Amino acid sequence: MSLTVNPVSTPINTEGPVILPRQFAYLTELSPADNIKYIQVRVYRKWTGVKVPGFTPTNFSCILLDKKGSAVQANADLKEKDRFDRDLQINNVYKIQGFGFERTDSWGKTLDNDFTLTFGKYTQIDQLTDTDYPYHYFNFAAFNELNARLEKKNPILTGQIQLSATSATRYYFNPDVQETSELLAAYNKANASGPHLQVQTERLTSWDQEKTRNRVPLGTLLQIDPKTQQRVLFTQEATVLQIDTGHHWYYQKCDECGGKLTYGYLHGQCHQYGTKPNPENRMVITDGTGNALMSCFTPQTDGLIKDVNALLNEVENKDPAITPPAILALQNTRHVFQFQFATPTTKGPPTFILKKIMDNPPMALPAASAGPSSPPVLQSITETDEHYTPPPVTPTVTQDTPADAPATTSYPPELGAKKQLFPPSTSEEHDRSPKKQKNE
User: Fold this and answer.
1) How crowded is residue 425: how many other Cβ atoms within 10 Å of its Cβ?
2) Where are the alpha helices (DSSP H) in 305-425?
3) From CA 55, how far away is CA 47, in angstroms rounded?
4) May I ask the CATH class of domain 23-127?
5) What is the pLDDT of residues 336-357, one digit of tens each?
6) Domain 207-357 CATH assignment equals 2.60.120.460
7) pTM for the predicted model, two decimal places
8) Domain named Replication protein A 70 kDa DNA-binding subunit B/D first OB fold: which ranges (predicted)?
9) Is residue 44 a contact partner of residue 137, using CB atoms and an 8 Å limit?
10) Do the first three CATH levels of 23-127 and 207-357 match, i.e. the same topology?
């Protein structure tokens, strides 16, 4: 999918890309896929987001109100905090344009909106004198509506959980009880280190040897600690058991900040137009000893699927949640994968990242022909006798040569002869008079 304006194909293309005029919109009329709107709002609240428990600053946030009483949250990166903290003052009214959108996180949701505005370097802020804007935002709910507003998927535990003790309480560490020894043995077994692997870290020049380098069963790799083998490449011949259709098969990457864009959301705060699609497929492979989840990115998918742009041109629905049939056709096919461990997570089994498909050797460059493309040029070399002296060279007479000038003949310098660097001129030789001998 391409959300760009091609300046080459634009009819009027004399100086640069065509910038569409922006239109006014209320907060309820904004769409994450629309990048040509501007808003007029009052700054209701602003704060700096922090990460607990260290209270490390993460971003700048604010709540904006429009004339209809609607509210929306806006965020900016920490590097832009000083600018927006200066330009956006509480209770002031501004015209804001050049912003983007992002999906609202459940943990930082302050309003009922499904999206949050994002401010950046292309965001323009102009202060207005109109004061006919509400100063407060209210969203009342009846008592019987509270249950529907509760986020049941993300419960939050309030209160304290702790052990209470009195002066008569006694603590026993490592007691000699049969039940505790069984628990300790089970804990040590679960946290025992996996098998030790002998791996080859150097890349092999032979394709057949590289194809079988570090051929380790998936069942063994799933038992070891991924942190100990982060940069090691493994190979395995496996079958694609399933394509993860619950995961988006591609995502759009912002050309400016490099961030991952949610489908239908634009980074208007980074630039006017421009996104870059990148494939992000996930599949489950098996070799008979275990099932592993593998993520695939371009260009490592060469040999499996077409280029992402070619696939997007073939499908009608560009929604990344709908996997194209060309990718689903990979199920139940067998390939030789070269992969490495993905960044380990706190929970779940280890996952892998595809590095190369090694079904077929790479195409070799065309070999040079046996003979030259053009016949060789034979150079004739005339051998002369060592004592042979070439004839003298007589200069040709030109128009600049006087008619009565005597013909001079120049001889080639003899071998081993020395050349005088500063020969005396003729006039200097005639004018030089002999020195008189000094008589004492």
Assistant:
1) 9
2) 308-314, 325-328
3) 13
4) mainly beta
5) 999 989 888 777 888 999 988 8
6) no
7) 0.46
8) 24-126
9) yes
10) yes
